[in-house]
């Protein structure tokens, strides 16, 4: 039996002012089997790297959104880094202010022999400097805040790694994923860095095998990949459950190989 990833997501909310909201919970580019359950018919949009957005015009009241999917966990060919990527993903961004982390990155990583060695060193450094603490950090914390605090969640680990890569001119981008094997289970954040002209995925938390991950959304940082954005409505978020598993079992990830995301 070829390995497969299975995803089951449910989120609930109470709308107090009607209007549109955008949901980004579908596997990028689609899956072999999918089921969407929405309270109203959605309008769809697609962004770079297959990021799929569903916009719902939400009425007053309590609602639930559900997404189920299944896809094969086949090895992916690494995506080439375009000229656009080279420009966009070496610039500072909202949560990755690389222009404020130059001393650290230049002092520790700039003189290492090649980009692969530099990225591996950044991942190891961030893994050693930050403690993974569920519920730590705040929605406005950027990479500098997280690094100084010495703790964070997956998005914070990714932001710090991305900012340090960009300082030394290695394109790096933020990726929201489903990650079978993650504990506690939730949406997960990793980053991709450019190695020898192609994109590969890295994860300083080491909480799930990269080979099992499914891309949801890709962007400069977490500001580009939120799973829910209000576009005029007002709502109270009541909670979400995220379940991502793999069959027949989890792949092994020793952390040393280059892995490309689908």
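Q: What amino acid sequence fits the structure above?
A:
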């Amino acid at each position: 039996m070829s390995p497969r990833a299975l995803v089951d997501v449910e989120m609930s909310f109470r709308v107090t002012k009607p209007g549109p909201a955008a949901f980004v919970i579908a596997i990028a580019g689609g899956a072999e089997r999918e089921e969407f359950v929405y309270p109203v018919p959605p309008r769809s949009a697609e962004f770079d790297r297959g990021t799929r957005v569903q916009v719902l015009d939400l009425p007053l009241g309590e609602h639930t959104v559900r997404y189920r999917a299944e896809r094969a966990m086949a090895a992916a060919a690494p995506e080439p880094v375009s000229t656009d990527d080279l420009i966009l993903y070496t610039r500072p961004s909202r949560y990755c202010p690389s222009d404020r982390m130059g001393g650290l990155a230049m002092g520790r990583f700039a003189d290492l022999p090649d980009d692969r060695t530099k990225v591996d060193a950044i991942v190891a450094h961030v893994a050693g400097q930050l403690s993974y603490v569920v519920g730590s950090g705040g929605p406005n914390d950027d990479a500098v805040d997280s690094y100084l605090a010495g703790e964070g969640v997956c998005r914070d680990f990714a932001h710090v790694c991305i900012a340090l890569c960009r300082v030394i001119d290695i394109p790096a981008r933020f990726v929201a994923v489903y990650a079978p094997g993650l504990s506690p289970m939730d949406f997960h954040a990793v980053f991709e860095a450019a190695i020898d002209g192609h994109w590969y995925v890295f994860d300083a938390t080491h909480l799930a095998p990269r080979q099992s991950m499914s891309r949801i959304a890709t962007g400069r940082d977490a500001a580009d990949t939120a799973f829910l954005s209000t576009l005029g409505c007002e709502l109270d978020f009541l909670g979400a459950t995220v379940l991502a598993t793999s069959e027949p079992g989890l792949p092994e990830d020793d952390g040393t190989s280059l892995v490309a995301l689908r």
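Q: And what stands out in the fold?
A: Residues 115-129 form the longest helix (15 residues).
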